[in-house]
Design a protein that fits this description.
The protein is mainly alpha-helical. Helices cover 68% and strands 0% of the residues. The protein is elongated.
Length: 139
């Protein structure tokens, strides 16, 4: 409540030109904020509806996944940041990045979705690995 009262009092003490500048800044920043909001919503939908399907049983049945990839570290299972499904996805990304398809990332371990995937090398390596499989396999 104090914040709202202080905000109203600050708004009353602003000059009309400052209020116009703030309004103009809000109008110009709206498209990027709206795009970010929709992207966040889509990511949450994928997280809620798709990622929960990744289970230990599914990981063990994937082709090319070893037993070490199908099992999680104890630190990952007790994470308060990522769900078990997200931890499996990070481990899967690390496994494919360690195969050496990504230049200079043979020792790279993917720890989070923001920083480690920001440059796109891990994601590109994973895509390239699976695209090569699709090209070599018959229809």
């Amino acid at each position: 409540m104090r914040v709202a009262v202080r905000h109203v009092l600050d708004a009353e003490s602003e000059t009309p030109t400052e209020q116009q500048r703030k309004k103009r800044d809000l109008i110009t920043s709206f498209p990027s904020r709206a795009c970010h909001a929709w992207l966040t919503l889509c990511c949450q939908v994928v997280k809620s509806l798709v990622l929960y399907r990744i289970t230990p049983k599914l990981m063990k049945n994937l082709a090319g996944v070893t037993a070490s990839v199908a099992s999680l570290d104890s630190a990952m299972t007790h994470s308060s940041v990522y769900s078990v499904s997200e931890c499996y996805l990070l481990k899967w990304l690390s496994h494919h990045a360690a195969k050496g398809l990504v230049h200079g990332s043979s020792e790279k371990r993917v720890m989070d979705f923001c920083g480690d995937l920001k440059d796109g090398t891990v994601l590109a390596g994973n895509n390239m690995l699976h695209w090569l499989y699709e090209i070599d396999s018959p229809f």
